[in-house]
Design brief:
Blueprint (H helix, E strand, L loop, with lengths): L1 H28 L3 H8 L2 H25 L4 H11 L5 H9 L4 H30 L9 H25 L1 H29 L1 H7 L3 H20 L4 H10 L5 H12 L3 H26 L19
Helix pairs in contact: 1-7, 1-8, 1-12, 2-6, 3-4, 3-6, 3-10, 4-6, 4-13, 5-6, 5-11, 5-13, 6-7, 6-11, 7-8, 7-12, 8-13, 9-13, 10-11, 10-13, 12-13
């Protein structure tokens, strides 16, 4: 039994590493410098999006968990998720909503890249400030090194390949994207398998309610804070609620030894975010023409 659990842990951690690196490498392979520059010209939009993602979002997560008096494992899971924006799945929601895909996908990879550095620091501060009644803290430097290396280096290498050899990037990207997708499914399946009892217990609980409230609040905040037309607003709105699963699962593995209660709560909230985001994206898509941008013009989006 112990051997089986150890093997599952090894597969989970290996899949997690592959998922994070492949997702950001894929994003880099499809990110053009011109697309990045075009979005950065809208300085106030970028500033407001980042303000919401890295200041308001963690506070909303903390407030939601505190108001609903979540149990400690769920509280920790909510704080970790709230501190980690930039999920590639957010850009997929923008695509579903027929929003501004270039802006949405570029902002997503920007949030993920910055979050590589800020996530452990923000999460550790939130956990300490929340005073959860125990000695909870993250090994910040270890997490910064792990997450930054797994996200920033593949992303920068991907951009370099795209810049110097677009044909190579186009040839590699489908395989890398599939690797990201399949590894994410393996990570999610193993997280579900390792914490299925906790997930069953979460049905109808305040943890699921907290996930719904957090996602809805972030969609509303993102929509009304963003500058621009409806397409831009809806795109930003769909980026803000979805958490970047890779660094969160890495934090649970490194700092909490894959605690099944924290892992189960995090998995449940991530699934809720995806469901709420998909429903809202489908609503935004009503009456919108199909986007004209091609996949080669926008950053790649993984599934985490």
């Amino acid at each position: 039994m112990e051997d089986a659990q150890a093997l599952m842990g090894l597969i989970f951690n290996a899949s997690l590493v592959v998922m994070i690196a492949a997702t950001m490498f894929s994003a880099g392979l499809s990110t053009t410098l011109s697309a990045l520059g075009g979005v950065f010209k809208n300085v106030w939009l970028v500033v407001l999006v980042l303000l919401v993602a890295f200041i308001i979002r963690p506070l909303v997560g903390w407030g939601t968990a505190a108001v609903l008096s979540l149990a400690v494992p769920a509280f920790i899971a909510m704080l970790l998720l709230a501190a980690c924006p930039g999920a590639p799945f957010g850009a997929k929601l923008v695509m579903t909503a027929r929003g501004d895909l270039i802006t949405g996908a570029t902002l997503q990879v920007l949030m993920a890249a910055i979050g590589s550095i800020t996530f452990p620091i923000t999460a550790n501060w939130l956990i300490s400030a929340a005073d959860l009644g125990g000695e909870f803290s993250l090994p910040v430097w270890d997490l910064v090194k792990t997450v930054a290396v797994l996200q920033l280096i593949p992303f920068v290498v991907g951009i370099a390949v795209r810049h110097w050899s677009p044909e190579t990037a186009a040839r590699w990207n489908p395989t890398v994207t599939k690797t990201s997708t399949y590894s994410f499914l393996i990570v999610l399946a193993l997280a579900l398998l390792g914490s299925w009892q906790t997930l069953i217990d979460l049905i109808g609980s305040r943890t699921i309610l907290a996930g719904i409230i957090f996602a809805v609040l972030m969609i509303i905040i993102g929509y009304f804070v963003a500058l621009g037309g409806k397409k831009t607003r809806s795109s930003v709105a769909l980026l803000e609620p979805i958490s970047n699963a890779g660094p969160v699962f890495a934090a649970v593995a490194i700092a909490f030894n894959n605690d099944p209660e924290i892992l189960g709560a995090a998995t449940g909230i991530i699934l809720v975010q995806i469901i709420v985001g998909t429903i809202v994206a489908s609503y935004f898509a009503k009456g919108q023409p199909a986007p004209e941008e091609t996949a080669a013009e926008v950053p790649a989006v993984g599934t985490s």
